[in-house]
Amino acid sequence: MASFWLSFSDPDKPRGFRRMGVIVTDGRDGVDAVNRTHGMGINPGGEVLMVALPDQPRVPDAWRDRLLTVEEAERVNEMMAKAGTIHKRRTRGRK
After folding, report:
1. Could you say which DSSP state residue 70 is in?
2. I need a surface site. Which of 25, 30, 80, 90 has the fewest CB within 10 A?
3. Distance between CA 70 and CA 40 in Å, rounded?
4. Which helix (H) or strand (E) holds 90?
Protein backbone atom coordinates (compact mmCIF):
# COMPACT_ATOMS: atom_id res chain seq x y z
CA MET A 1 0.00 0.00 0.00
CA ALA A 2 1.04 3.56 -0.64
CA SER A 3 0.28 6.75 1.28
CA PHE A 4 -1.73 9.56 -0.32
CA TRP A 5 -2.33 13.24 0.44
CA LEU A 6 -5.98 13.89 -0.44
CA SER A 7 -6.96 17.56 -0.67
CA PHE A 8 -10.71 18.20 -0.90
CA SER A 9 -12.34 21.34 -2.27
CA ASP A 10 -15.64 22.57 -3.66
CA PRO A 11 -15.22 25.13 -6.46
CA ASP A 12 -18.94 25.95 -6.31
CA LYS A 13 -18.68 27.37 -2.79
CA PRO A 14 -18.00 31.07 -2.25
CA ARG A 15 -14.42 32.25 -2.24
CA GLY A 16 -12.86 31.62 1.15
CA PHE A 17 -15.00 28.52 1.77
CA ARG A 18 -13.80 26.24 -1.04
CA ARG A 19 -11.25 24.23 0.91
CA MET A 20 -12.80 21.30 2.69
CA GLY A 21 -9.72 19.69 4.19
CA VAL A 22 -6.81 17.30 3.79
CA ILE A 23 -6.63 13.62 4.67
CA VAL A 24 -3.49 11.46 4.62
CA THR A 25 -4.37 7.79 4.18
CA ASP A 26 -3.15 4.59 2.56
CA GLY A 27 -4.48 2.73 -0.46
CA ARG A 28 -3.51 0.42 -3.29
CA ASP A 29 -3.89 3.50 -5.52
CA GLY A 30 -5.49 6.94 -5.29
CA VAL A 31 -8.99 5.68 -6.02
CA ASP A 32 -8.69 3.05 -3.29
CA ALA A 33 -7.47 5.75 -0.86
CA VAL A 34 -10.53 7.92 -1.63
CA ASN A 35 -12.82 4.91 -1.26
CA ARG A 36 -11.26 4.20 2.15
CA THR A 37 -12.13 7.73 3.31
CA HIS A 38 -15.76 7.05 2.33
CA GLY A 39 -15.70 3.77 4.27
CA MET A 40 -14.32 5.54 7.36
CA GLY A 41 -16.97 8.26 7.09
CA ILE A 42 -14.38 11.05 6.89
CA ASN A 43 -14.66 12.11 3.24
CA PRO A 44 -15.99 15.70 3.20
CA GLY A 45 -17.06 15.47 -0.46
CA GLY A 46 -16.24 17.83 -3.28
CA GLU A 47 -13.35 17.42 -5.70
CA VAL A 48 -10.16 15.70 -4.63
CA LEU A 49 -6.52 16.26 -5.57
CA MET A 50 -4.45 13.12 -4.92
CA VAL A 51 -0.69 13.13 -4.39
CA ALA A 52 1.23 9.93 -3.70
CA LEU A 53 3.55 10.44 -0.75
CA PRO A 54 7.00 8.86 -0.44
CA ASP A 55 7.59 6.05 2.05
CA GLN A 56 10.03 8.19 4.05
CA PRO A 57 9.54 10.23 6.05
CA ARG A 58 6.34 8.53 7.17
CA VAL A 59 3.50 10.80 8.20
CA PRO A 60 2.83 10.15 11.90
CA ASP A 61 -0.19 7.97 12.71
CA ALA A 62 -1.77 10.86 14.65
CA TRP A 63 -2.09 12.74 11.33
CA ARG A 64 -3.57 9.87 9.33
CA ASP A 65 -7.12 8.79 8.55
CA ARG A 66 -8.83 12.02 9.65
CA LEU A 67 -9.32 15.55 8.40
CA LEU A 68 -6.27 17.60 9.27
CA THR A 69 -6.37 21.14 10.53
CA VAL A 70 -4.71 23.76 8.32
CA GLU A 71 -1.79 23.85 10.76
CA GLU A 72 -1.38 20.06 10.70
CA ALA A 73 -1.50 19.99 6.90
CA GLU A 74 1.19 22.67 6.81
CA ARG A 75 3.36 20.64 9.21
CA VAL A 76 3.05 17.53 7.03
CA ASN A 77 3.91 19.65 4.00
CA GLU A 78 6.95 21.15 5.79
CA MET A 79 8.10 17.70 6.93
CA MET A 80 8.03 16.37 3.36
CA ALA A 81 9.68 19.49 1.93
CA LYS A 82 12.44 19.43 4.57
CA ALA A 83 13.19 15.80 3.72
CA GLY A 84 13.44 16.85 0.06
CA THR A 85 10.74 14.41 -0.97
CA ILE A 86 8.34 17.04 -2.32
CA HIS A 87 8.40 20.68 -3.26
CA LYS A 88 6.82 22.89 -0.66
CA ARG A 89 3.14 23.49 -1.42
CA ARG A 90 1.21 26.51 -0.35
CA THR A 91 -1.60 25.47 1.97
CA ARG A 92 -2.74 28.98 2.94
CA GLY A 93 -3.48 32.04 0.95
CA ARG A 94 -5.41 31.51 -2.25
CA LYS A 95 -8.82 29.99 -1.80
Report:
1. H
2. 90
3. 21
4. none
